[in-house]
Amino acid sequence: MMRKGHVRILLAGCAAVLAATLGATTALAATTWTIKPGGSTSAKSGNAIFIDTATGTKITCQSMTTTGTFKSGSGLSGSDAGSITGVGFNHCTGPLGVTISYRATDLPWHINVTSYKSGVVTGTISHMQIKMTGPSCAGVIDGTSATASDGVLKFSYTDSTGGLKLLTSGGNLRYYDVRGCAGLFDTGNPATLGATLVLSPKQVITSP
Which of 2, 55, 125, 173 has the fewest CB atoms in 10 Å of its CB? Predict the structure, then answer.
């Protein structure tokens, strides 16, 4: 038979676990976002650079452009805080002047914000897929397969400048269904995309 003292200790322990669990749940639920002004946006970068990190092949586009929207208001979820509905990669060239065309597919892509500190937001662009074509060359950049449309790219966004920087680490992009390409790219190789897009109008994204 369990002694009363042991019962009190057991109940106290259960209460502590429950309080900790409820506290964690409350903290997660409290992570909300404010976005101003929201609405339609456009963005343009300087050079946008694709790299096959296994072969070292670098393709440099003179610019990258996007159109999309952001939610507006406060108390917003960070998931699907915005969307990218149009993407352009302009004049992309690589080794020996080879020209590669990139086309964003399965739009819209999703903008998700995950953390905020001192005016800088970090997050991800998800649901990504990009098809590429060139002289005797074709392939797909995606996440887990050529047809998954689950590519993810990390970014950081600075409220004061409106600059959204695509990061070359922390994503899951890979090359798939590569045909031809003379060894410049290979199926299964990791892919990165680096650029800094300047949003217009500039968005102020904060949490809480």
Answer: 2
Same domain, residue pair 57 and 120 = yes
**Per the structure block, which two tokens stand in for 57?**
């092949």
- Cβ contact 58:93 at 8 Å: no
Can you read off the two tokens belonging to residue 186?
């290979």
Same domain? For 123 and 112 the reply is yes
Same domain for 1 and 86? no
pLDDT (tens digit per residue) in 101-148:
999 999 999 999 999 999 999 999 999 999 999 989 999 999 999 999
Question: At 143, is the secondary structure helix, strand, or coil?
Answer: coil
190 DSSP 8-state letter = B
Q: Which range of residues forms the domain containing residue 62?
A: 31-206
Contact in structure between 61 and 91 (CB atoms under 8 Å):
yes
Nearest CA-CA partner of 89 in 107, 108, 106, 104:
104
Q: How many domains does the chain have?
A: 2
Instruction: Check: CB of residue 38 under 8 Å from CB of residue 71.
Output: yes
User: What Å distances lie between residue 197 and 156, 158, 163, CA to CA?
Assistant: 10, 11, 6
